[in-house]
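[Meeting: bench + compute handoff]

Bench side (C.D.) handed over the final construct sequence. Compute side (W.E.) agreed to return the predicted structure before the next meeting so the bench team could plan truncations. Sequence as handed over:
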Amino acid sequence: MRAARRWTAAAVAVALCATLAGCVGAAPAHPLGGSPSQSAASTPTPTPKVDPVVAYAKLRLANQTLRQKVAGLFMLHLPGTDPAALRGYVDRYGLGGMILMGDNIPGSPAELAAQTGAMKASDPGLPPLIAVDEEGGDVTRLAWDDQPGADTLRSQDPAATRAAFARRAQLLRDSGISVNFGTVADVTADPHSFIADRVLGTEPGGASARVAASVAGERGMVLSTLKHFPGHGETEADSHRAVPATPVTKADWAVRDAPSFRAGIGAGAELVMFGHLAYTQVDAAPASLSPAWHRILTDELGFRGVSITDDLRMLQDTGLPQYQDPGENAVQAFAAGNTMVLDVLPAGGDPGALIDAVVAAVQRGRIPAAQIDADALKVLELRRSLAPKG
């Protein structure tokens, strides 16, 4: 694998200076904003404002190979709490992100902060996304998170949800975690559903209010994620063991399941996670691999942020033969429209093979190169926004 180009602060400053035409020695501006030959009465042309985050991301993208772009669209997992091993894993494969599972969480906030700090140390100007499932209640990774989960919050005013998620986000930020896969936007009143204990509301109105409140609580501290689009509440089955299917129509989905996702998007959620479940009246494929559901998210719900799959290993764990090739699963996920792929690889899993499979798919035309560029830029911008200021 070609080694990623290392960027020093000075190198980036010089390159950005050239890109933005702000270098010392550039032609001096006329006092009135025009060229020296222009009349003093001429109207100066406003200089467009350049977003430094976007400019930095474009510069990095321009210097990446196809393989580096693709690698930056993967969020993977390595067991253990060894900071050096975790840092080496990110660096070796050039990953865009890492998810921390229970086996990654040490005994104290200080130890976790040191661990995540090491993971970002190789390229502080472009830190990897570091994510965790910190919902509270049934899904709690950090032992020191004492805030209530959905099983308690859904019977309380939305203000309680906002307060709980604000405190939770503070704990995550202090630990060096930048992404929370914590907002369950699914809706169900069915006590037999596997997601029942984790939903923030049993009907669309209450769920929408609390989903929006959770995003508002996390705002400015961690990036918020809505899951599991288009909504697990319509089926009882567990997508960790099967691909649940529901015959619910799109019209019924729009009334029952869409409002909470729409509310979270309106509140500013930066990510949406796609679930491995099939609404067969819309598409027989699981939503995570469905172009139709990705179009609905963007065109009808107006989401313009980063979409990411639920753990693709779950598809393999169903035992269904069509999902036993992890590389092909990743290719189909990107072809469907996901910005990023999340995969908690089994022991011995090969990240390089996943990356190679997607690179080959781009080269063969299965995934448009322009899509990879657009997705890579979006992720680079998100990562750059998390870099230390100054």
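W.E. noted at the follow-up: The chain has one domain: 69-385. C.D. will use this when planning the next construct.
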